[in-house]
Fold:
Amino acid sequence: METIFKLKTKELDMSFIESIKNLFKGKEIEITIKSAQDETEYLLGTPANKKKLLEAIDEVKRNKNLIRFSGKEFEEMTQTMLNS
Structure:
């Protein structure tokens, strides 16, 4: 079993530790800690990416090039994709 927790350092407390202990009760665990990368910063990190994303945001605001579907259509499409 593998679990990823994303949280701020101020959220680290004894209840967090207890939840990990309960989740992995009786098992040996390995803990790796790293700084999380800001996803927005990453996506806007290159000029080409930034331009494409800002153009896409503008298109959404102008209601242009949108694909619309119902919940049922979405379920049918996901089933088709899962079965292929």
Summary: Residues 9-83 form one domain. Helices lie at 14-23, 39-43, 47-61, 71-83. The chain has one domain: 9-83. The chain has a mean pLDDT of 91.
